[in-house]
Amino acid sequence: MGAAAHIHSAEDARRLARRRLPWMVFDYIDGAAGSGLGAERNRAALDAMCLRPRILRDVSQRSLETRLFGSVAKRPFGIAPMGMCNLSAPGADLMLARLAARYQVPLGVSTVASTAMEQLIETAEGHAWFQLYFSGDGRGSFTLAERAQSAGFKSLILTADVPEVGRRPRELRHGFAMPFRIGPRQFLDFAMHPRWSLPTLFKGRPEMANFRMNGYEFDRTESRAKANWDTLKRLRDMWKGNLIVKGVLDVEDAVKLRQFGVDAIQVSSHGARQLESAPAPIEALVEIRTAVGPDFPLFFDSGLRSGEDILKANAAGADFCFVGRILQFAIAAGGEEGLDRLWTVLSDELSIAMAQTGLTSLAKGTVAAAWKRHPIGAGAT
């Protein structure tokens, strides 16, 4: 029996991945800013949300489809942009791209992806959005945006919550760096995890593929602090497709973005990897939905671990959700079979939760009724 057969939840995938991955790689994927209190805060807020069970409703026919920028997506959740996914296993980026194509959901292609954006959008059959970091004076960032537009990307995600890269002590303790460097400690770590290191050695060291351009080098630690509203205006003027701003947790920022003319906002704490003291995104989602009104597109990520979590986010105001590191854990645990297995688990969990809350679809105006409106964070039972 393969490892994928043992994945019955996101936590199973994480547990199996922890056994297989070098400590340095696992802590890079799993880690959060500071001591991890931000991640715990978000998890506690999600756990405190209750769903409203309903009975004697015909829920025998249920649909997980939703509409996203005028197109049908077969699931109400997609793949969050994640850097250096091929650290979880060789070819992970392409596994995610194939999954996006099958379910017609967006693949977030990170600025620091380990596979070139052109190959990923082709493999995803067009179901890919490019995620952009602004860095330095912005010249390289705008070059990447222009390249993404030429490659056929119709949606651009500006990740705006990283003016400086957050300190993640779990990474730092292992000497994690990009570009990937191997010293004596890392070599010993890899030697103790041969099921990961041997295939990775055979395939070659993962690199940041989007920076193989003449005259351009990426420095992960380079300040991104110069980005401002004028930067966003320049991006809005040059980008012809959908423009999404990711990393929004403040109501005033959300209202200004709506007025500014962005096409959607992604409520996110960057998976609690940036500011440890940031509020729980699920709480910010409720406030932002109230502020921007019922019809403005709101997306959500950070800390989603189950289909019930996804339903909670939809009930709290999200039009679409993104899941991230748990997919890398599934790949590390069981390769593409593990990824498919976890995706099925999430889908089944969501479908069952819909049945138990009396829902047959995720249409607006119906999902909100699934939320048992105890105050978030109050420890309701």
Describe this structure in words.
- There is one protein chain.
- By secondary structure, the chain is α/β, with parallel strands linked by helices.
- It has one domain: TIM Barrel.
- The protein contains 14 helices and twelve strands.
- The protein has an eight-stranded parallel β-sheet. A two-stranded antiparallel sheet has the order 1-12. A two-stranded antiparallel sheet has the order 2-3.
- Helix 13 (307-315) crosses helix 14 (325-356).
- It is globular and about 60 Å long.
- Keywords: Flavoprotein, FMN, Oxidoreductase.
- GO terms for molecular function: oxidoreductase activity.
- Residues 2-375 form the FMN hydroxy acid dehydrogenase domain.
- It holds the Pfam family FMN_dh.
Question: What's the structural blueprint in terms of helices and strands?
Answer:
Blueprint: H1 10-20, H2 23-30, H3 37-48, E1 50-51, E2 66-68, E3 71-73, E4 77-79, H4 92-103, E5 107-109, H5 117-123, E6 128-132, H6 139-151, E7 155-159, H7 169-173, H8 184-191, H9 194-203, H10 229-238, E8 242-248, H11 251-260, E9 264-267, H12 281-292, E10 298-300, H13 307-315, E11 320-323, H14 325-356, E12 371-372
Parallel strand pairs: 4-11, 5-6, 6-7, 7-8, 8-9, 9-10, 10-11
Antiparallel strand pairs: 1-12, 2-3
